[in-house]
Amino acid sequence: MLLSSAYFPPVAWLALAAREMTLSPDRVLPSTVQIEACENYQKQSYRNRCYILAGDGVQMLQVPVVHGADMAITRVQVDYSTPWVVRTQRALDTAYETSAYYLYYRDELFALLEAQPRTLWELNLSTIRFLLEKTGVACRLSPTAAFIVPGSEADDDYRFCIHPKHPDSVLEKLGLDKPYYQVFRDRMGGFTPKLSCLDLLFNEGPDSILWLKKL
Questions:
Q1: Pairing mode, if any, of strands 31-35 and 2-3?
Q2: 3-state DSSP call for residue 129?
Q3: Burial class (CB in 10 A: 0-12, 13-18, 19+), 197
């Protein structure tokens, strides 16, 4: 399985990470995911943004980066010159303070952002590991050692198909094109898809793994 780096990745990302995980009453066998570490930073992608559901609709949370000559994904630096961490915290409080599980995870999540990792790569890995642990997805992560040409591992290469500006059928193919509870579902007129897995976690908590594994 080959995936791109992502900031609080969308549900489809975690669903793929959970696909090969074995979960049964007597054992848990982790899946294995390679994260593309040899690409250049991709603008307007999940690499530095995620989407949550607020009372007035879908809201984008974005990480500003320092643009320079070297934009290798593992060396792109996060720009902390603006108070984006505080704005992100306020947005999450406003959107999820009434959800069932937000307060269980809030302090640890905020500490992760307040640690101010220097690079986007480090920040993204910390958000991915946070979501894997809290949703119960057992997964071994490893960075790629060299850039893998698109198409050479077509069956398991999802680096470019999960994109905020492009439709994808990942959840449909996994049999996960189904709703879970959302705080503002009635206000939005129904279920809102393609959100960060934070939305699933705050609404379903430890039952997130049951949704991801169709149990």
A1: parallel
A2: helix
A3: buried
pLDDT along the chain (215 residues), means of 10: 96 95 83 95 96 96 92 96 98 97 98 98 98 96 89 76 91 93 91 96 96 90
User: Which pTM was predicted?
Assistant: 0.94
The residue type of 149 is V
Contact 174, 16 (CB under 8 A): yes
Cα dihedral 36→40→45→51 (10° resolution) = 70
Query: Which whole-number Å values give the CA distances from 97 to 9, 90, 202, 212, in the listed order?
Result: 20, 10, 9, 23
Nearby residues of 143 by Cβ (< 8 Å), 6 or more positions away: 34, 35, 36, 37, 74
Taking the C-alpha atoms of residue 65 and residue 144, their distance in angstroms, rounded to an integer, is: 22
Short-list 169, 138, 192, CA closest to 14: 138
DSSP characters for 52-91? EEETTEEEEEE--B---S--BTTTPBB--SS-HHHHHHHH
CA atoms of 1 and 213, how far apart (whole Å): 17
